[in-house]
Predict the 3D structure of the following.
Amino acid sequence: MLARLKREDLELIDIHGDRPPGLPARETLLKVLHLRTSDGEWITGIDATVRAWSSTRVGGLWRLLNLPGVRPVAEKLYSAWARRRYQRRYGR
């Protein structure tokens, strides 16, 4: 869905195929969402999710995850979701 909604300033890379040099190990990338900013900084997890979805027309909704009362809950839910997703898809 992110691929369909994103703006041109967000580039998605298929980590299952040939990957550009300089990326973390494939398994590391599979465990949580990684995003590299235009200045080369890596951000991961809920921060990467909010930043990526902010490059869509529904980005304002995702920014709500950064609100002080919401942020701790969002981090816990994202961590649980990412761990479960990885275990289900890759059996690890």
Notes: The helical segments are 2-5, 26-31, 45-53, 59-63, 71-90.
